[in-house]
Amino acid sequence: MYLSRFLSIHALWVTVSSVMQPYPLVWGHYDVCKTQIYTEEGKVWDYMACQPESTDMTKYLKVKLDPPDITCGDPPETFCAMGNPYMCNNECDASTPELAHPPELMFDFEGRHPSTFWQSATWKEYPKPLQVNITLSWSKTIELTDNIVITFESGRPDQMILEKSLDYGRTWQPYQYYATDCLDAFHMDPKSVKDLSQHTVLEIICTEEYSTGYMTNSKIIHFEIKDRFAFFAGPWLRNMASLYGQLDTTKKLRDFFTVTDLRIRLLRPAVGEIFVDELHLARYFYAISDIKVHGRCKCNLHATVCVYDNSKLTCECEHNTTGPDCGKCKKNYQGRPWSPGSYLPIPKGTANTCIPSISSIGTPPKFNRIWPNISSLEVSNPKQVAPKLALSTVSSVQVANHKRANVCDNELLHCQNGGTCHNNVRCLCPAAYTGILCEKLRCEEAGSCGSDSGQGAAPRGSPALLLLTALLGTASPLVF
Ligand SMILES: *[C@@H]1O[C@H](CO)[C@@H](O)[C@H](O)[C@H]1NC(C)=O
Ligand SMILES: *[C@@H]1O[C@H](CO)[C@@H](O)[C@H](O)[C@H]1NC(C)=O
Ligand SMILES: *[C@@H]1O[C@H](CO)[C@@H](O)[C@H](O)[C@H]1NC(C)=O
What we know:
The protein has 10 helices and 24 strands. The chain is α+β, with helices and mostly antiparallel strands. It has 2 domains: 2-52 and 301-369, Laminin, CATH 2.10.25.10; 55-297, Galactose-binding domain-like (Jelly Rolls, Sandwich). Strands 3, 4, 8, 10, 11, 12, 14 and 16 form an 8-stranded mixed sheet that branches. The protein has a 4-stranded antiparallel sheet with strand order 7-15-9-13, with no helix packed on it. Strand 19 and strand 20 form a beta hairpin. Helix 3 crosses helix 4. The longest helix has 18 residues, at 2-19. It is elongated. The protein binds 2-acetamido-2-deoxy-beta-D-glucopyranose (NAG) (3 copies).
């Protein structure tokens, strides 16, 4: 079913790309991998960094529960109404569709009333812990672009850990801890994302913000992706250029938002009181009506299309790259080492295409992009590229090896606000400006701008809003 949808979208994509230049070239969304341009030598291809749209990733995952028989209803059992221990005539019965609560109901359409939800068996074996792992697997590297949101139909759990894997489930790292009492549950001081900064954005925290029992109305738990983006792009994510610049140069930051699997470890259900009511253990269980995960296939900036075929996501690689994540050069295109595309220079980035192997060509092909010497970025001040992030997280070697991109030139990649391009590797900015393309007021960095410039977080003509659309994947004809 998805396949046909993908194919038709793919057909649309092919149509669009064969029409050439469907989008203005000026401020890209990274949504085209190449366009034809006209030069004195005629038509030539211009290659650029590209990525798939951000989309609802829950359509493409596999879910696994541990223990496998933890879903309620087999055998049928009664449970108490949420929050009311004296109404215990609700029934879960896996063999009756109207009374069953299978895991799929976490990912179906919400908006019905009452909502549909997965539900666990009740805590009848108290005091043995009631623990459930819900593992979501994509079998594909994906990049998260929006908050992970989990809606609990009963109370939110007293203790929970969100974990992630980057290697298809072989190893796991905590992403965030959730508890009504972080110190008691995990020996961690409670924090919220708002307590973090650019320097500490990668810190794994325990939060108490989302863990109250029956008594509060909110059913929702967040893992805050956007708040973390905001440390770089500003509170309204206006300065996406700055975020993209950071993602480009700091592998640890990029990896932080990248996963192949997620695991929700439910460790203790909502109790809502200090003591567990042992006479009414049918009050305690987990129930989840919705899980939201927004992201995009990671294609290393070498593809805009990600195909779902045979229950598997695969990037449709351009730039003569190949592999599920476009992570290597095609055969006969190994004329230089593979390298991911780059968001820089804003707005079109750099494709870093694979070029024909020396042996397979007669005369070297002409490329209309320049590949400046690798040593260039090493020389340029890494602080310029990664202004605030703790530099201990990124060695200068990493920075140097990662980028071969032009940061600026005098044709398409202009330094802004009167900056001048120095050797294609950095913009020399007027004293009042900073940022990769001099797009930022220096006083904003220091937080000392006058109040009226405070809202000018995005300079005039900034790509920020357009890039925001690209990143957060709002309406576009190519959403898959
Ligand atoms: C859940 O997964 C963790 C590892 O991520 C494992 O240590 C734990 O035993 C699992 N719990 C259950 C109930 O399967
Ligand atoms: C990739 O290779 C094909 C030939 O197989 C060539 O026509 C095309 O221009 C190449 N693309 C890039 C981005 O180098
Ligand atoms: C790259 O740098 C090396 C040493 O710094 C130099 O010898 C070489 O000519 C440079 N190549 C280009 C294309 O600039």
